[in-house]
Recover the amino acids of this structure.
């Protein structure tokens, strides 16, 4: 086989894949911009100020090349809401990986949350717990305790926040990560972007979490 034909075939595959990816991203941006207008939210393709404001959360301290895109901001039910796609990269060379997820942030003076992080528990977390790595468990909810890693500087305050109602919600949710502190919390599913048609339902899940967390304030 002619090496030129092989090279040309590989180049065509790469160009096609790049074009399809570009078209997909453009369509996603267009759909989210239209959704923002329907919600009466503002929309920006990227927003460094929002990225800086999220710096207190564990998720936004990971990796490098952090960037927020498709940022929608507005107010719903007197609660400030920010919806964004967020990506960052870990590792180097062949071992590098880019993580992209849809993140929603809620802010309200009605919240008074202890600082906490909650994310799905993996094998490394379980091994770490053997060596004293913090994981706040609840004997009343073994499924939750086996599924999630919960951490916070003020353990008693975090335990008070996680009521039976809130624990039961997470028992029924798969892969949901949440971080909070003061008047704000964020939630997402790691490395999963929500389709534009699913954003409203995902936001409603956030309002449900807000109601349960507000009850603690």
């Amino acid at each position: 086989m002619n090496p030129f034909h092989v090279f040309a075939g590989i180049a065509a595959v790469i160009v096609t894949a790049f074009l399809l990816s570009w078209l997909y991203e453009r369509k996603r941006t267009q759909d989210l911009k239209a959704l923002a207008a329907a919600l009466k939210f503002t929309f920006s393709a990227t927003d460094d100020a929002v990225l800086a404001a999220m710096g207190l959360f564990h998720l936004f301290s990971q990796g490098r090349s952090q960037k927020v895109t498709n940022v929608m901001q507005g107010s719903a039910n007197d609660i400030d809401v920010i919806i964004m796609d967020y990506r960052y990269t870990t590792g180097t060379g062949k071992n590098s990986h880019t993580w992209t997820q849809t993140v929603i942030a809620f802010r309200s003076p009605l919240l008074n949350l202890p600082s906490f992080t909650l994310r799905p528990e993996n094998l490394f977390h379980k091994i770490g717990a053997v060596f004293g790595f913090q994981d706040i468990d609840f004997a009343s909810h073994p499924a939750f305790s086996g599924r999630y890693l919960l951490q916070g500087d003020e353990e008693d305050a975090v335990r008070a926040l996680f009521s039976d109602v809130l624990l039961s919600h997470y028992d029924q949710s798969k892969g949901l990560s949440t971080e909070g502190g003061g008047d704000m919390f964020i939630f997402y599913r790691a490395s999963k972007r929500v389709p534009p048609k699913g954003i409203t339902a995902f936001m409603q899940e956030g309002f449900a979490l807000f109601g349960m967390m507000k009850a603690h304030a």
Observations:
- The two ends are 71 Å apart (CA to CA).
- Helices lie at 3-39, 48-53, 123-130, 142-147, 155-161, 164-171, 199-214.
